[in-house]
Fold each of these.
Amino acid sequence: MKFCPKCGGPMVPVKKGDKIVLKCVKCGYEMPAPPDVLEKYKVTKKTKEKVVTTKVVSEAEKLGIDKEMLEQAKEEYYEFVLEQMGEYGE
């Protein structure tokens, strides 16, 4: 994965006319994409599910989430992280 030289944001491939460029999701900076960009940037899993992030888990008490829901969210987040680590570690 490439990161923006201006702001450090992640660069994602975007089709622009008949070419593919890498575009920063934060500031919009664009740069030419390497020829093998589509091989390196593949969506492996699409989901419509809502993913619980660490921010949600850490702010659960402020949001009024009960302890049982918090523990369930922590378990799901932990499983998700382990699954992602397994996919990238192979």
Amino acid sequence: MATRFPFQDGGGKNATFKKHLMQRLIKSGSASIADIAKELELSIPTVTKFVGELIREGYVKDLGKQNTSGGRRPNVYGLNPKSGYFVGMDVQRKKILLATIDFNGNIVSNDESYPYELANTPEALEQLIHILTDYISHLEIDSRKILQVGMNIGGRVNPNTGFSYSYFNFSEKPLTKVLEGRIGIPVSLENDSRAMMYGEFMAGCVKKEKDVLFINLNWGLGAGILIDGKPYYGKSGFSGQIGHICALDNEIICNCGKKGCLETEASGYAIERMLRERIAQGCTTIMSEKLEAHGEFLLSDFVDAVRKEDMLSIEIVEHIGFVLGRWIAGFINILNPEMVIIGGPLSETHEYLRLPIQSAIRKYSLNLVNHDTRLVVSQLGERGGLIGACLLSRSRLLDMI
């Protein structure tokens, strides 16, 4: 059974102040009592009291004297990295990625990748639980110090209730409670696109920007939205379902059951359909071998084909880039973000994808608005969702989101 975080369920005003103090140390790394008192608008005796209590509880460390240009040097304080750990689990279509961070956000275990077939079945859930428990059992830390497991998965999830509506929705209990009952550790649930966005915000290409749109171009198409430095969830946590905007008059049935969704022309599923159609028409591509040998392919196979300058693959990625860019232009007109990040596996095609998106943005968005927006490719790549899962679980525990 995991160690219970003492401030997890309220705890009154003092617990709230302690959480705010820990949030401050996460953002700055270290600070003096005077610095903390100034930012939190508390008296120095009050901050001294809370810092002393957090030191005794094991969550804060005295880091010694601060280097200053002159005068009396104050002591600085920081979080104790060994006071607690957070496991991140990124559930993908063909694999599960796992990693662990300490309280300071440092990765303390090598990223682990497990083969996995994502399906909405009890068998797939059992395999997921087996992978997670096996991973935890091999960690070189006391598992009782794991404060939370942060899991992200595609589709519609409600982080507040812990329900997943796209996968593992066959139990009356929330998915988080099902998992907690099996592993004995609190579990939080997040949408994969939002987790990837948060990973970039906390540890990736986002620097000082607070209004960000993250586009997850995967087998499906989703988005994570950051407004004033906070993830935007909407009423039930379903924000960011941009793949299911009725954007096209193409009569193609989407995985959601509706016709004309943006995902039908800008996603991994769209790439697979276009490849099969063009090969049937006699076009040549190095992707033919993958499809003939296995009947399917990985998105990394398609990315490799683009990098090898396979002409059909380049044509397809340019097509989806321009289609997607037209709708990103609309989102820029609505949200006026500081940054748009292109992420997900297909972002690994880099300029082959970014340039047609940029071209469409310039063509279809208002010039005065798009000048405010910087278009970049994900810095964390495939690890973005995993890092985001870890950091979101910590932030959720400390009420940072």
